Structure formats: C-alpha cells, structure tokens
Amino acid sequence: MSTSTPTPYMRTLLMGALIVLLVMGVRATFGLFMQPMGAAHGWGRDVFSMAFAIQNLTWGIGCIFFGMMADRYGAGRTIVLGAILGTLGLIGMRLSTDELSLYLTAGVLVGLGQAGTTFPVILPVVARAVPAAYRSTAMGIASAGGSLGQFAVVPTGQLLISQTDWTGALWILSLFIAAGAPLAYFLKGKPEAQRGEHSLKAAIRHAVADRSFHFLFWSYAVCGFHTAFITLHLPAFLVDGGLTATHGATAIAFIGLFNVLGCYYSGWLGERYSKKTLLAAVYFLRAFGIIFLIALPTTPMVAYAFAAWMGVFWLGTVPLTQGLIGQIYGLRYAATLSGIVFLGHQIGSFIGVWMGGYVYQTTGSYTIVWWAGIVLAVVAAVLCLPIKEQARALPVPA
Question: Looking at the domain assignment, is residue 395 inside a domain?
Fold first, then answer.
C-alpha cells in the first residue's frame, strides 16, 4: 500500500490486524494443549478433537449472527462481546474437569469469542475504510495478522507450557484475548445506510440463489478442513514420527511466518489478476505439500519444508474469498455474507478435526485424513473455476 494512504485508514488496518494476530495466534496454540491436558485428565485425542470441532462449528454459526450484529450495531461492540466470551472460554477451559465442561468452554465459548473477533467481522471494516485501489492488499495485510500471530504466539504458548505448565499458560493466554476489547475502540462504526437500499434479508436471499456463492461456501470448507486438522494434529503427528513437541510448535510457527508473505501477496495479486483463478491455484498447490509430507520420512527438515510450503498458501484464501464477496455482492452486508460463507469453512474445520481424532483412535494413524486432504484440495480448486466474478448486487429499490 502507498505511504500516502491517510492515517485513519492505516490505523483501522493495523488495529484490525493486531486483534486478528492475538486471537488467531492463541487459537493456533490449542494443538499444544492436547497431550498435556489429555494426560492430566485421562482424555484421548478424540475428546480434545471433539472440543476443537465444536469450537470450529460454533465459530462458523456464530459468525453469521456476529456479522449481522456488526452490520447493524457496528464492529466495535461486536468485537468487545467476542473478546469477553473468548476470555471466559479460555478461563473455563483451564477450570474444566470433565468432557462436558471442556466442550462448553473450549468448544462453545471460545468458538463464539472467535466469531466476534476474526475475519468476517474485521475484514469488512478494513474493506470499507480503505480506498478501493488498496482494498485487496489491505485485506491481505489484515489476514497476515493471523499468520504473524501463529508465528509469534505458538512458540510463546509452548514456552509458557514448559515454564508454567498448561494451567498457567491458559491464564496468560486469556489476557491476549481480553486485549481485543480495548482495541475495538479503533474499529467502531457500522456501514452507512443508503436511501432506498435493499434489506438484509433480500441481500441474503440474492446471494444464496447464486451458484457462485455456493462454490465459495464449499471451497472454503476445504480450507477449513486443512487448516483446522493441521493446526490441531500436526504437532502430535510429528511426535508420533519421532520428533519432539518443540519441533511441532516450530512447524506451526513456520506456517504462520511464511503465510505472512502468502497473505500479503495473495491480496496484492488479487488486485491485478482473477481472484477465482488465484484461489483455485492456492487449493491445488496445497495438495503437493501434503504429498511431500507423507511420502518422506519424518525429519525436522521435512516438517519445516512442509510448514513453509503450506504457510505460503495457508490463509491466502481469506483475502481472495472475502474480496470476491465484496466484489460480487457489495460491501453493505459484507460482514453477514462473509459470516455465512465462513460457516462453510467451519463445517470443514469440524470435519477435519473430528475426523483426525476419530481416525487416529481407530487406526492409530492419520494416513486416511492426509489422503482425504489431498483429494479435497483438488475438488476445491475445481469448484473455484466456475465462479463468476462480475458484480451482481441487487438493484436499489425505488
């Protein structure tokens, strides 16, 4: 983005990226807690996987309602509510003593907290604040906040676990989420209503009737399958292969580091080339990374090379998918429509983390899930190609 961009635009962009950094960074640490919490409470990987699956599904469903709230009452209030719920969820996760309490806290409360503080709420604010010429790049930068958080917070989380045990780590990480509440001040405001504009209900009906909206929804589900499964299960997969927990945390951090560039250039390229073609390429190229990982012996270099490759394409789907929603359907109800499409992402996330835990418990291996990820990557790439990128906003009522 040009340095001539006015300061208020940059402030909105930077504060939005910082909130995403904190929330997505903490989320990326959850795979580190699976083994120590499981050992402390006697929970198998299937239990923790179910909690994470519930979290992802709650996140997806919650995004629709938080998106409506942001469109109607403003993003600031929405983010504050999300930060409060997310903080309570992490504290409750620390205090959980049985499976039900884990599902209600790490699953439901944390999922709702993420719904109010992540992409479907933050990115439409950024898109409205930044001039159209910079919009795609700005969303790439804001999305990169999540990746930078993964790079910075995951090693911090591993250090906290080693120094303060998993119990102390959760107390400290809950403060990271709570920090989103005061930062929400810089993202206050809501979309301006236009005279004679169509209703939210009409906008949803219009989008749902469009095939391209469904292609975005289901391709995004594949993104969720990949990212959620890898975030939760990659550290354990590497430990099973003879590596250490530190190798697993470093690999997750590497994904975040390389996706800082991936997100930025995804947004930058989205201003210059077809977003749907770029999106198809991102999904297709993920398949090669997975093949590389499962075809070679598990060594630190293989793990880090896989992390770097996947990192380039990790959240590059976000600015492209969000950009297509705004480009095709307009920005007035972008938070709501983004929330609906994000539900697809979270359905995929639910399946990915649940399937990972179930398959491992029943077979002792993640092989089936890795191959499913390869097939789904190709399917998602094919789904993106028929998307029609032309604007199709509803005509303004007389």
Answer: no
* Banded pLDDT at 2 (limits 50, 70, 90): very low
Helix (H) or strand (E) holding 243: none
Q: List, in order, residues 6 or more apart from 285 with CB less than 8 Å away.
A: 313
Does 398 map to a domain?
A: no
Q: Does residue 313 fall inside a structural domain?
A: yes
**Structural domain boundaries enclosing 232:** 7-190+199-384
pTM for the predicted model, two decimal places: 0.78
* CB-based burial label for 386 (10 Å; 0-12, 13-18, 19+): exposed
Looking at the structure of the chain, the number of domains it has is: 1
Q: How many Å separate Cα 116 from the centre of its chain?
A: 12
| CA dist., res. 130 & res. 12, Å (int) | 9
Higher pLDDT, 379 or 71: 379
Please write the tens of the pLDDT for every residue from 191-225: 665 554 567 788 888 888 899 999 999 999 999 99
The C-alpha torsion from 293 through 296 and 299 to 303, rounded to 10°, is -10
CATH number of the domain at 104, please: 1.20.1250.20
